[in-house]
């Protein structure tokens, strides 16, 4: 065999090995969602590729047979192609025996390097970047190879299947996509700039609906504006003017005896028409209220809203005491975050500088973890808010200037209103774990404000209503 013929055979073997490598990696790396998208766009090859991913046994058998056969042939042809030439060249400087040995080693190195570079590394890395594009193009030749080598494929596939059954190993790829998979993809998209960071946060918030309880988005009890059933007309009108919300609970005697709710637009219509306003028994203004327990998740509350066609609910605890109210807007604000929050709205997490935050005590602990970039808090199952964290850590009702050091941060109570923790100053600690870092100017680019909607303060006009805020009458039991 001449040198030209040997070189041609080696080039063909490298090309065949590269094709096999592309076929192997492209099938393994192809994303089923992308293949489904290609199939929906009218590419029939993508549908065949998905079927091949479901049963890849014969496919990979051909791949392995081809790789091993090519490697053996490459060694045989390559050794005879370059060994003699290298030996003759090295004979000018080395004895004949040493030149022959060195020529064989050098020939092995050259052939191996060619196969590693052009038949392995290059095609495999290319297949990782565009797996679906390459898979649909190599699939038909691979199916032809499966047909041509059917006896060999059948023999090795049956032995492999028997070994899988013997060791109890799974022989099919799990194609289930979990919420963690989706969140990982959106996070990767946000890092790559394909997905906006705010959009990624909205998607993450959607998946939190099943884990966050309704109390993390409700208006707290002490911020609820409500009417008593026997309130006279002037009191009702004064309350509407003072606290213009979309919905008001109607109670009998106190806030823990809710008899229904009244819609603000009905009250405004009567007030503008100078008609009397009465909420007594039989009043058409009072509607039956949806009552939900405080252990429901936000996803379950959405289901309740959908079933009864309501967008307002009263939340009770296990002692049948009212702990808050929630609206459909509250739940949607939890999902959308700052995308739907007015810029001048009161935020529950305010970054003061690069090392400190001012946080409302009723802020959900999940939002605190996200803002501080922490993985977990101690005893998380015992509380849901930052105030609850401080109570659990201190083992008593916190007072002003009380503080807790944990996770590299100092949590200091700044303001307390009738046992309610209004503001907490969170400061990053220095390396000694005791001294807060000095204030510094904020970083040029800060992450987008996190939604921390537990309670919604009253807005300044009827065009931006909310449900619930401070009311001096009730107090938390």
Automatic annotation (TrEMBL):
Keywords attached to this entry: CBS domain, Cell inner membrane, Cell membrane, Membrane, Repeat, Transmembrane, Transmembrane helix, Transport
Stored PROSITE patterns: CBS, CNNM
One GO CC term, this protein: plasma membrane
Chief location category: membrane
Annotated compartments: Cell inner membrane
Positions with biased composition (Pro residues): 436-450
Domain CNNM transmembrane, residue spans: 1-199
InterPro entries per record: CBS_dom (IPR000644), CBS_dom_sf (IPR046342), CNNM (IPR002550), FAD-bd_PCMH-like_sf (IPR036318), FAD-bd_PCMH_sub2 (IPR016169), Ion_transp-like_CBS (IPR044751), Transptr-assoc_dom (IPR005170)
Membrane topology: Multi-pass membrane protein
Gene Ontology molecular function: flavin adenine dinucleotide binding
Chain residue ranges for the region called Disordered: 430-477
Protein family membership: Belongs to the UPF0053 family. PaeA subfamily.
Function text: Involved in cadaverine and putrescine tolerance in stationary phase. May facilitate the efflux of both cadaverine and putrescine from the cytoplasm, reducing potentially toxic levels under certain stress conditions.
Name of this chain's protein: Polyamine export protein
Annotated source species: Comamonas terrigena
